[in-house]
């Protein structure tokens, strides 16, 4: 028996390149994604805040989602698929602290709140169910799916690693178009015999990058006895990759310490219906051979032209990759790209992040 009682209102996704200098993103683009069934906490709140439309003003009706918006702002709502750490490299418990599993970075920390009124997805206990994980940008890797142990109370207990038991592990599951939020991975998960409210936790660990994604889904198991089943075989943590040897800094400027690259966003000029912006990319202490900058516009801004980068948008989410002449930067060296865009009267500056492509 399979259940697909997901929060299944489609998100309106854009896939149209913008401006005359825009090209499609290469296959090495940064990955993005989260569970849409059972709905991740960030996806469920985004759906709640947009009334299932995927756009417009954020007006959550769920109290937990409303408090997350008030505390953490709109970035994690528009970027619901980007709850990631770029360099955890398989060392998940080292990079993600107890109590911070649902939001391991400052941008998503509001989703760590201990409360039982987050939006939930019903799951039939002790059956096999097809899970759906959005693939905003597809990449090879392994999905580790956990569920909280019996006795965990989401109303009073912060989520810690010791609260989780592994129920499924799958590498490179099948991919298809047409999910509720676009392309999606899908695979069967044998659900345990549990009852009541729990948290399903997934770690998506890329095999072509040290990046990993961390997401909580609030679920209610129905039809179960609550009797514990056999313990699954433990899965050893992947061996960490040794840190590369540091390279000397050939530049007089200080490169971003411990980062591949850093991006700074500046509005150079603004008028009643539009603006011009520039993004400066600075290489980290090992230099870069290619870079990608991404951000989410919260107020419906639309890029009309760009230069010195290849730019593509997925709805409100924009990704820019280096041009041929500015992708290789020595440690501390900078390059910039720019664009013009329109707005409807409100132009909140986004947070930009720089990644390895």
Distance between the termini: 41 Å
Mean pLDDT score, rounded?
84
Could you describe the largest sheet, including whether it forms a barrel?
6 strands, mixed
Alpha plus pi helix count = 4
Would you tell me the structural class of the helices and strands? mainly beta
Order of helices and strands: EHHHEHEEEEEEEEEEEEEEEEEE
Rg (C-alpha, Å): 21 Å
Strand content: 35-45%
Q: What percent of the residues sit in helical stretches (DSSP H or I)?
A: under 10%
> What's the count of strands?
20
Shape: globular
Uncertain stretches of 5 or more adjacent residues: 1-30, 228-232, 234-252
Can you offer a commentary on this structure?
Strand 11 (261-270) and strand 12 (274-283) form a beta hairpin. This protein has helices spanning 41-49, 63-72, 75-78, 92-95; strands spanning 35-37, 84-85, 121-124, 128-134, 141-148, 164-171, 175-179, 182-190, 196-206, 212-222, 261-270, 274-283, 288-289, 292-296, 302-307, 309-314, 317-322, 328-329, 334-342, 353-355. Helices cover 8% and strands 36% of the residues. The protein is globular. The strands form five sheets. Strands 2, 3, 5, 6, 9 and 10 form a six-stranded mixed beta sheet that branches. Strands 1-4-8-7 form a four-stranded antiparallel beta sheet, with no helix packed on it. The chain has a four-stranded antiparallel beta sheet with strand order 11-12-19-15, with no helix packed on it. The chain is mainly beta and 357 residues long.
């Amino acid at each position: 028996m399979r259940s697909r009682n997901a929060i299944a209102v489609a998100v309106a996704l854009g896939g149209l390149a913008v401006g005359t200098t825009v090209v499609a993103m290469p296959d090495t683009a940064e990955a993005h994604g989260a569970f849409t069934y059972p709905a991740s906490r960030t996806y469920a709140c985004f759906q709640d805040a947009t009334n299932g439309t995927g756009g417009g003003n954020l007006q959550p009706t769920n109290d937990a989602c409303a408090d997350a918006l008030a505390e953490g702002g709109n970035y994690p709502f528009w970027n619901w698929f980007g709850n990631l750490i770029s360099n955890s490299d398989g060392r998940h418990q080292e990079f993600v602290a107890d109590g911070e599993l649902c939001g391991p970075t400052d941008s998503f920390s509001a989703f760590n709140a201990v409360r039982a009124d987050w939006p939930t997805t019903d799951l039939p206990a002790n059956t096999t169910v097809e899970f759906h994980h959005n693939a905003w940008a597809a990449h090879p890797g392994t999905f580790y799916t956990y569920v909280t142990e019996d006795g965990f109370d989401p109303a009073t207990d912060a989520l810690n690693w010791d609260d989780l038991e592994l129920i499924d592990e799958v590498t490179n599951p099948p991919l298809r178009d047409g999910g509720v939020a676009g392309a999606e991975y899908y695979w069967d998960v044998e659900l345990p015999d549990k009852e009541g409210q729990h948290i399903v936790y997934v770690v998506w660990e890329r095999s072509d990058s040290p990046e990993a994604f961390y997401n909580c889904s609030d679920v209610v198991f129905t039809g179960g006895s609550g009797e514990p089943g056999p313990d699954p075989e433990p899965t050893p943590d992947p061996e960490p990759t040794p840190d590369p040897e540091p390279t000397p800094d050939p530049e007089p400027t200080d490169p971003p310490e411990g980062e591949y690259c850093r991006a700074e966003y500046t509005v150079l000029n603004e008028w009643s219906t539009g603006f011009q912006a520039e993004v400066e990319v600075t290489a980290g202490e090992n230099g870069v051979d290619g870079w990608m900058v991404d951000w989410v516009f919260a107020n419906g801004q639309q890029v009309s032209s760009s230069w010195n980068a290849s730019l593509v948008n997925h709805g409100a989410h924009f990704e820019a990759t280096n041009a041929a002449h500015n992708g290789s930067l020595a440690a501390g060296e900078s390059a910039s790209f720019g664009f013009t865009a329109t707005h409807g009267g409100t132009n909140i500056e986004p947070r930009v992040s720089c990644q390895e492509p």
